[in-house]
Amino acid sequence: MLNKKYIKFLFLLLLTYKKKHLSVFVISTVIVAVLTSTLFISSAIQKDIYITLDGQADFTIQRYKAGKVLNTPESWIDEFLDIDGVSQVQGRIYGMHFYEPAETYFMIVGVDLFDQEVSANLKKLINGIDIDKFLARDNMIIGSDVKKFFDEYQYKGSYSFRPPDRSIKKVYIYDTFPKDSNIVSSDMIIMDKDLARKILGVEDGYVTDIVLEVPNPKEREMVRQKLIISHFNARIIQKKDIKRYYKNLFNYKGGVFLTLYIIVLITFLLILYQRYSLISQNDSKEIALLRSMGWRIDSVIYLKVAENFFVAFGAYLSGVIIAYIYVFFLDAPLLKNIFLGYTNLAHDVSFTPNINNTDLGIIFLVFIIPFLVAIIIPAWQKATIEPTEIMR
Amino acid sequence: MRFSFVFLTILMGLFVLILLTPHAQDNQDIKTLTKLTRLPGLAISTSYLEKRVLYYDDYSNKLYPSMKNYSQMDFVYVK
Predict the structure, then answer these.
(1) Is the ipTM of this complex over 0.85?
(2) Residue of A49, A210, A317, A350 to mutate, interface with B, max B Cβ within 10 Å
């Protein structure tokens, strides 16, 4: 049946009813593009989340008192090193700096630049960084959105922090993080550990929290028990908890959007169904003509399905291509705010493509099958009526 | 008719190109930065409503005086 003449007839039908098909094509393309964009953004961010989480320590220990997180004593590091199975215990200095006039937070992270691994990673990240020159005076490396913010508020070349002791600490901007790392670094400021300690007001002998590794997964539960016993005022956060937290966050956000999408899709399909149910006299006559020429009911339905499949398939392809350009070339303006939040610094994030073919397959099935069903039923209803009755 | 056919062919070509483009590479900058800071620190959680670290509540602004942008008035009161 699918010969050259049949295909020519199919395209002629498409051209004859081009106005009708064009409106359906445009709406369908927008729906597919919005859904696919959401999936592209979600999977791209999720991939980056898992990359960052894989680099995390297995345990994070914080000291808390009366529900408040306090700085953790550095003496705990030696205690934790004595626990069997524990390796790489490290105190971290970090915290939020609040810029009140703009109600904006920056994340200050203090790193030990005398540590070989830290300086090697910093050299990898910032091309041509001279650690000695960096340490020669109070320098910092800032995220590109922090840089944009400083420029906007006329902090050129340096920024003066106000540590809790009411002094003024002028810190020079050494360099900016690469834009590709923006999803992590947009609000981040990295500086020497001692400088960060002074600015954040972390007393000597204390750190913000302690991280440690347990290389053997089977020992982690036992280590957790030992950590709980060692200090009753310690809060122990495991990497798997943080992973679960982020997964829930994404499932929640993605779920809310998916629910809205399903409502839109159902509404669209109902409109489509109603439109084809109230099929015009020309369409009915066309079906009747084909039937009177000897076409069987299934052939007429097949023709209608094929005609609309081209529209739906074209819309699907256009939707996916538009979504790809929108997310990975234009960096998804507006839609990315659903996932990234926009109450703090404005994000200038580039997404790393992470396309799951299964997701594209699911969109295809979820969109095309209901679309065709909404066409088949009215076409079948018309095709089963006696042609003479319609022509009359 | 020819236009529809060409249009559909171009769309399919672009779609196949998207599918065949290798997307498995990790963002090395993010990897390095995470190794450096050991923080999950996604910008996704910079909003104070979404905590950067699970359970981590930021009390620094309550415990410490707010870090305000200093003005001329600060110097007047220092005297």
Answers:
(1) no
(2) A317
